[in-house]
Design goal:
The complex is a heterodimer. Chain A is an all-alpha fold. Helices cover 76% and strands 0% of the residues of chain A. Chain A is built from ten helices and no strands. The chains are: A mainly alpha, B alpha/beta. Chains A and B meet through helix 1 and helix 5 of A and helix 2 and helix 3 of B.
């Protein structure tokens, strides 16, 4: 696997688009996260009025331990679509350049090709999860009055890793099936921004909890919007059932990808 | 033992049979040409044996008992078009290929020199001309000094000097004892380079054997093996005279004279004497063994769409 990753790295390390999108995530997320924390805390701590203090208590500041972890994971998730797009691009590029054929011709098995891309997926998830952890830690330490229970909410970093994995597996599946760069990215965004939310809405309007098990909503619900007041939360299903659902989706996507790619003609 | 044996290979694209029950074996240390018009199934055939296309039915087997993908590492293959990462240099592209093969990384400077790309090795692939891309693809096949090479239209996009160089390279590789499987629609190329040939048309194997066997095995309705080119001051008169000569298969007027196809029993002397005796003095008399082209057209018919 490491050997496969080294070859993938050789493919992308001097690819400008890779660095633009990857650096976009690595730079914009921390800067945006820290700045919003700074502005938010400045506004909250500067005010003396009763109403604002009440609001502050209600909101239970998202940038303070233990919620800082959730805030970092949630905001990281927003920026992570950049990585999803990048991952699609790196797969459809192979089809466009027909290098997926050449890799097989040169001696990879079809499974090797998928494993190599999966190693890249692990890399993206690992790097972004580490960044989410670091930013949660930094913002938490800077803005929390006390670090007593600082690691209470650290599970959200784990939920982020699960979310990132599922998002990239969906990107992987779309890229392998659709092959065309533009169309794949459009479909990916359509599912991420529209389809999944509409499905969730349809189910939750009927007072059903099924909506929370929709492909992406499962992980989205694990990392809820930290600015949303608790009283608006309607979810009653437990976290662990969502974790199981997300894992099931990951396995199902992997199964479809492997079955499809093993049997298909590699054409452009 | 055959380097590659193919049995009853069939490939369907929907209702279209790209390959229909094709069987043949590639003997070791030959230059094996797969000859056919555009769209006859050559690339499909090579795609299948390289595992990038899946068969509909039939089977193939490479010599050796290795698992297929490890076997492919020991074969140098150029399939259809050069497939490289456009944003990477020629050198980096070769490094990726060598790493996948698990061999040949130390060969990179050598193979780049062999195809005259060493000076441009650090340029990005998308700055290369068509011919340079093709030469990089050929360089890639040579990594790790493989015993088997598969070339699909190897001289595609090359200039005349480049074509000659690549043909010479293929012959040289064969002299070193390597087996070369080469698909081409260029008859001249196959005739100049190959020792064996399989002719396929519309996915059907028409004939297979050594080049001399294929040339000498005459068509069902013809025992002709010799082609004679003639011309005289008055070609119309020459044609009239030749039509009276017994034993000739066909007489065709061409731009520069007359072409006669006849059995090997007829000699140039006989033709010359017959013409002279009938009052025609020949300006040109050129005896050729029947070329692969004639044979190819006999086998596949003359319409390009067939």
């Amino acid at each position: 696997m490491l050997q496969l990753f080294k070859i993938e790295w050789l493919k992308i390390r001097s690819y400008r688009t890779f660095w633009i999108l990857f650096a976009g995530f690595l730079v914009f997320f921390p800067v945006a996260f820290y700045l919003s924390a700074y502005k938010y805390m400045e506004r909250v701590t500067d005010t003396k009025s009763m109403e604002e203090n009440l609001l502050k208590m209600l909101l239970d500041s998202p940038f303070v331990f233990p919620k800082a972890w959730l805030a970092s994971a949630w905001m990281g998730g927003l920026f992570f679509v950049l990585i999803g797009m990048l991952f699609i691009l790196l797969i459809t590029n192979e089809v466009q350049y027909r290098t997926h054929r050449q890799n097989i011709i040169d001696g990879w098995s079809r499974l090797d090709f998928l494993k190599a891309k999966f190693s890249l997926l692990i890399f993206f998830v690992a790097v972004s999860t580490l960044l989410i952890f670091i930013m949660g830690l930094v913002v938490g330490v800077v803005f929390s009055p006390s670090t007593a229970k600082m690691f209470d909410g650290v599970k959200y970093v784990g939920y982020f890793a699960l979310m990132a994995t599922l998002y990239l597996m969906l990107a992987f599946l779309i890229a392998i099936l659709i092959k065309r760069t533009g169309l794949s990215i459009i479909i990916y965004f359509a599912i991420v921004c529209i389809v999944d939310n509409v499905l969730w809405l349809v189910f939750t309007l009927k007072e059903s909890q099924v909506g929370y098990y929709m492909p992406l909503e499962a992980v989205d619900s694990l990392v809820p919007n930290p600015f949303k007041p608790k009283m608006l939360e309607r979810r009653t299903v437990a976290d662990y059932t969502l974790v199981i659902a997300a894992a099931a989706y990951i396995v199902a996507y992997a199964y479809i990808i492997v079955q499809y790619f093993r049997k298909t003609d590699l054409k452009t | 033992m055959a380097v590659l044996s193919i049995e009853n290979l069939t490939k369907n694209y929907g209702p279209v049979k790209a390959l229909n029950n094709v069987s043949f074996a590639v003997p070791p240390k030959t230059v094996f040409g797969i000859l056919g018009p555009n769209g006859s199934g050559k690339t499909t055939l090579l795609g299948i044996v390289m595992d990038i296309l899946k068969v509909s039915s039939g089977s193939y087997k490479w010599a050796g008992d290795d698992i297929p993908n490890e076997l492919r590492r020991k074969i140098g293959t150029l399939l259809e078009t050069p497939n490289f990462y456009h944003y990477l240099s020629g050198e980096t592209n070769l490094r990726i290929a060598a790493k996948i093969k698990g061999r040949g990384e130390q060969d990179i400077p050598k193979v780049l020199q062999m195809v005259n790309l060493y000076e441009r090795r650090r340029s990005k692939f998308n700055t290369y001309s068509l011919g340079m891309k093709q030469r990089l693809a050929i360089a890639s096949t040579l990594l790790g000094n493989p015993d088997i090479l598969v070339f699909d239209e190897p001289t595609n996009g090359l200039d005349p000097a480049g074509i000659a160089e690549i043909r010479e390279l293929i012959k040289e590789l064969n002299r070193q004892g390597k087996t070369i499987i080469m698909a081409s629609h260029i008859l001249d190329e196959v005739e100049k380079v190959c020792t064996h040939v399989a002719i396929i048309q519309k996915g059907v194997l028409k004939t297979v054997g050594s080049v001399s066997e294929v040339l000498n095995t005459s068509g069902a309705n013809s025992s002709a093996a010799i082609l004679i080119e003639l011309s005289a001051a008055n070609n119309d008169q020459l044609k009239n005279v030749l039509q009276q000569m017994p034993g000739l298969e066909s007489i065709t007027g061409t731009e520069n004279g007359i072409e006669v196809v006849c059995p090997e029993s007829i000699t140039a002397e006989q033709v010359n004497k017959f013409c002279f005796d009938n009052g025609v003095v020949l300006g040109k008399l050129n005896v050729k063994r029947k070329s692969l082209e004639t044979r190819f057209l006999e086998i596949t018919g003359k319409q390009s769409d067939r």
